[in-house]
Design a protein that fits this description.
Elements lengths: L1 H18 L36 E2 L2 E2 L2 H6 L47 H5 L4 E6 L14 E6 L3 E2 L4 E3 L4 E11 L3 E7 L6 E5 L8 E11 L4 E6 L6 H4 L6 E11 L3
Antiparallel strand pairs: 1-2, 3-4, 3-12, 5-6, 6-11, 7-10, 7-12, 8-9, 8-11
């Protein structure tokens, strides 16, 4: 019986609802928001991103590979190394281009008419004589025993003197070789002073060489000679009889007509 009554109630409600219809212009009230749902599950991991730019610090790049690629400041020069061996000599290069012509020289001066061959030869003067006496040269003008050159004969072997025949400028030189001390003077009667040269040999075992020379301007008949003089030589030096050589040379550089 109770079931029958319930069925009758439901049929009555349905009939009521079907009888109540909403007009097109009617509007219901807004509903209330629902309650928040429970948190969802974590999503899947995403794909790996591309490599970012190098990190930058206040003083510059901090990434080590970047630092290695950067060029640093130039350091101080190192110590100079030892010199290497000399290389092979290179090939001779090609000849260079000819240079420009030089400036014109000064005009020559007239020295008179041309001379014959015999006259030109007369403008030469040269000599070379040797003293090969083993005794010590006395303290005076030196005499010579051998002639190497005496052209055309301006050196007087008898007096040991050169006599100027052609006025001009001459060059005179001498050399001595001995195991004792030696002092020599180059003397010209046209000069006020003598040119003196000394070599002192203290060990008296090895040969010493003494050399000297001078350029002199001479007039006709001026004389030039070589002489030995006393300075600090000992008695044993002057008494020595071992080999000694003195060579006296002279020649005309250019004539100078008076």
């Amino acid at each position: 019986m109770a079931g029958f009554i319930g069925l009758v109630v439901l049929v009555g409600v349905a009939g009521f609802l079907s009888a109540v219809r909403c007009n097109p212009g009617c509007k219901g009230t807004d509903g209330h928001p629902g309650e928040a749902g429970s948190p969802g599950r974590d999503g899947l991991s995403g794909m790996k991103g591309e490599k970012g730019a190098p990190a930058v610090s206040v003083d510059g790049p901090g990434d080590q590979p970047v630092l290695l690629r950067l060029k640093g400041d130039r350091g101080s020069p190192g110590v100079v190394g030892p010199m290497g061996p000399k290389g092979f000599r290179g090939h001779v290069g090609a000849s260079g281009l000819p240079g420009e012509p030089g400036p014109l020289g000064q005009h020559g001066r007239n020295i008179g008419a041309g001379q014959s061959v015999s006259q030109q030869e007369a403008q030469f003067s040269s000599f070379s004589v040797i003293r090969n006496d083993s005794t010590y040269p006395p303290f005076k003008k030196i005499s010579f025993q051998s002639v190497v050159v005496n052209n055309p004969g301006d050196f007087n072997m008898t007096g040991g003197t050169f006599v100027c025949r052609i006025p001009g400028v001459y060059y005179f030189t001498f050399h001595s070789v001995a195991k004792v001390s030696m002092c020599l003077s180059l003397v010209a009667d046209s000069a006020d002073d003598k040119l003196t040269f000394c070599d002192y040999n203290s060990n008296r075992i090895y040969e010493h060489m003494l050399s000297g020379g001078a350029v002199l301007k001479l007039a006709a008949n001026n004389k030039v000679w070589l002489e030995s003089f006393q300075d600090e030589q000992s008695a044993s030096d002057t008494q020595d009889i071992r080999d000694k050589y003195i060579i006296f040379n002279g020649f005309l550089l250019f004539s100078n007509p008076e």
